[in-house]
Protein: QueT transporter
Organism: Defluviitoga tunisiensis
Amino acid sequence: MEAKKISKRIVRAALISALYVVLCLVFQPISFGPIQVRIAEAFTLLPYLDPAFIPGLYVGALLANIIGGLGAWDIWLGSLFTLIAAIITWKMPNKYLTPLPPIFINAFGVSLYVAPLYNFPYLLSVIWIAIGEAIATFAIGLPILRLFEKNIYKNDN
């Protein structure tokens, strides 16, 4: 792979990482907790276009979770769930299915520690986090994915 292409991928991953953190901070009241719409999760669909986004998403989630205040569980497990969702998204056969890994992995995974931290029923947490993830990925993420596909990855991968 040529140096210019590698540089573009590194910059793209770094930008997504920074944007992930900024969006979590700007929307902090709705980015953490048992009822959340983490707008930054819209970016978890981008590995479908390029696996170079995967480390950027992981680092962004890790930094956001450090700042977010939910503690070690969120820092390590929340970031790990974002990483797993990003890897599975990269392997999805169809772009319209790309929201499914972040929705299911985060709804069931994040609820494992968020529900007890907030003394919130696990299944209710799963439902609310799934709804929030669906909003972030279907309503925001798919249009972003299409935008990247048309304007950034049309002739350049």
About this structure: The chain has one domain: 3-29+36-151. Helices lie at 3-26, 28-31, 53-68, 72-90, 100-117, 122-151. Residues 20 and 26 are 10 Å apart (CA to CA).
